[in-house]
Amino acid sequence: MTIVTAVEDTERDRRVIAEGAALADAFNDELHVIHVLDRDSLEEGAAADEPGSRPTLEVARDIAADIASLETKEFTPVGRIGSPAGEIQNYTEETEARYLVVGGRKRSPIGKAVFGSITQSLLLNVESTVVTVRTESTS
């Protein structure tokens, strides 16, 4: 089986990777680290459209690899393009993951309603067990 760990592109993701790696070690599972580039956040004339540039899927995979390599050496980097919550959910289901590990931040109810929450969507919709790692300090 697999442990899927979703990362953004921040230093906070180190705790998320560490938890995913610990679960993978404990269950002797493969660790897959996924990063999703949101279509809305891609600039006009994105890298995929420019001659000689790296495709955006490769960029997303490289971001996952760069973040994961800070905490572990054994993982499979995965890059996707689209809605982060949807792509993470689809990948988790495709791989029949034992666990999905995601980061979470403390947000007000109004903040969640106005801005949405990828973590909240995953908690409500993914059939695998979802482990949420607090990515901010509690002080």
Automatic annotation (TrEMBL):
Q: Which domain of life is it from?
A: Archaea
What family is this?
Answer: Belongs to the universal stress protein A family.
Known CDD domains for this protein?
A: USP-like
Q: Name one Pfam family in it.
A: Usp
* Name of the protein in question: Universal stress protein UspA-like protein
What SUPFAM superfamilies would the database entry show? Answer: Adenine nucleotide alpha hydrolases-like
Q: Which organism is it from?
A: Natronococcus occultus SP4
- Report the residue ranges that make up the UspA domain in this protein: 2-134
